[in-house]
TrEMBL record:
Keywords, comma-separated and alphabetical: DNA-binding, Transcription, Transcription regulation
Residue ranges, annotated region (Disordered): 1-32
PANTHER family, per the entry: MANNOSYL-D-GLYCERATE TRANSPORT/METABOLISM SYSTEM REPRESSOR MNGR-RELATED, MANNOSYL-D-GLYCERATE TRANSPORT_METABOLISM SYSTEM REPRESSOR MNGR-RELATED
Protein name: GntR family transcriptional regulator
The HTH gntR-type domain, residue ranges: 36-104
Species in which this protein is naturally found: Leifsonia kafniensis
């Protein structure tokens, strides 16, 4: 069973952290005669024990000192194994609190495709629900006016949504549309349907986009909405989508939980320089 399958097999319910994994099973010694590095053996033994003991996301795992004792290895070996497990999304290490089985992260290709979060998740059998916090006409501020290519204070439609995947808060997105585009969906119910799909029924489609991604820390408002601690890592996406006539048709800012999302980038070589990789851009509604 690979790492992705192992984590996908864990129950969906959010558990109360417990200590069932604080001491792993009957471990014994690692094979010191194997050609496989010790840290590699330890990493896979931890993955096997998580599955065998049916540990759930949030369950406590042994710390570095306990693992050294259990497996008879050095702290260097343990740290290398845990570092790789954390990088692979198998565990979470929280300073001052311990090591935990990680919650599965949903891979999202929103950085390189023109499908939105709704299409991305439903294609995998998940369910997206939006708490529409605001859906109204507002004057464009400097940032919005610049992104949409309109004059300052021009009326635009703002749609503010807290997005849930399978009932868990996932992202907070504010989308701004030029008034002539936004008016088409101003009175639509966006709780359980795609904004892109609705716009498409009116003949409005994004054909290209320009997107940026940056790291941020949750402020008190973001913390309360997304169910994370203040200061926890977020990924901030900003994007401008363009229609067939190359007119800006959408600008959004989306704050994604860093502990639930993993963004995937597809790279292609530039035709003029095979050593150069180019990112394809996207939109997310």
């Amino acid at each position: 069973m690979n790492t992705a399958d192992l984590l996908a097999a864990q129950p969906d319910a959010t558990p109360t952290p417990d200590t069932r994994g604080d001491t792993l099973g009957d471990t014994g010694d690692l094979d010191r005669h194997s050609a496989l590095p010790m840290y590699h053996q330890l990493k896979h033994r931890i993955i096997e024990d998580i599955a065998r003991l049916n540990l759930r996301p949030g369950d406590v795992l042994p710390g570095e000192h306990r693992l050294c004792e259990q497996f008879g290895v050095s702290r260097t070996v343990v740290r290398q194994a845990l570092s790789q497990l954390e990088h692979q999304g198998v565990i979470d290490r929280v300073k001052g609190k311990g090591t935990f089985v990680a919650y599965p992260k949903t891979p999202e290709s929103l950085v390189h495709t023109l499908t939105g979060l709704f299409e991305e998740v439903t294609a995998r059998g998940g369910h997206v629900h939006s708490d529409v916090r605001r859906q109204e006409v507002v004057p464009a501020d400097d940032e919005v006016a610049d992104a949409l290519g309109v004059a300052l204070s021009t009326p635009v439609v703002a749609i503010d949504r807290l997005r849930f995947i399978d009932s868990e808060p996932w992202s907070w997105t504010t989308t701004y549309l030029p008034y002539e585009v936004g008016a088409l969906v101003l009175n639509e119910d966006l709780r359980d349907q795609s904004l892109y799909a609705l716009l498409a029924t009116h003949g409005v489609r994004a054909v290209r986009g320009v997107r940026s991604a940056e790291a941020s820390s949750a402020d008190p408002e973001q913390s309360a909405l997304l169910g994370v601690n203040v200061g926890q890592a977020l990924l901030v996406l900003r994007s401008v989508g363009y229609d067939e006539l190359d007119r800006p048709m959408e600008y959004f800012i989306a704050y994604h939980r860093g502990d639930r999302s993993r963004f995937e980038f597809q790279l292609t070589a530039s035709p003029d320089d095979q050593s150069t990789a180019a990112l394809r851009h996207t939109g997310t509604s």
